[in-house]
Specification:
Length: about 120
């Protein structure tokens, strides 16, 4: 497994921006598919952005066009740039990783709180 640590969460007003980072250590970072999940109070954890080993990306419709996932393999870091934030984006955000060929995410960060005020 790779160890993941998120940072960059906080309180922001509607329409504002935040950039989350996820620093990795341990196993070979570039061999992992990576993703950002979020969990709002009383809701299930949901996958919102994915970046493959090949750098191909996918997004949940509700964040498409506002959020950008990226990775820097040289720095062993995953990012999530969040623009035009809305109150409904308020949640705990988690980064996660799974190795090529795996079906489940087996590496998780501890989560970082993002709160968007109206």
């Amino acid at each position: 497994q790779v160890q993941l640590v998120e940072s960059g969460g906080g309180l922001v007003q509607t329409g504002g921006s935040l950039r989350l980072s996820c620093a990795a250590s341990g196993r070979t970072f570039e061999n992992y598919h990576l993703a950002w999940f979020r969990q709002a109070p009383g809701q299930q954890r949901e996958l919102i952005a994915f970046i493959a080993i090949t750098f191909q990306t996918n997004y949940k419709d509700s964040v498409k066009g506002r959020f950008t996932i990226s990775r820097d393999n040289a720095k062993n870091t995953l990012y999530l740039q969040m623009n035009s934030l809305k109150p409904e984006d308020t949640a705990v955000y988690y980064c996660a990783g799974r190795t090529f060929g795996a079906t489940k995410y087996d590496s998780w960060g501890q989560g970082t709180q993002v709160t968007v005020s109206s």
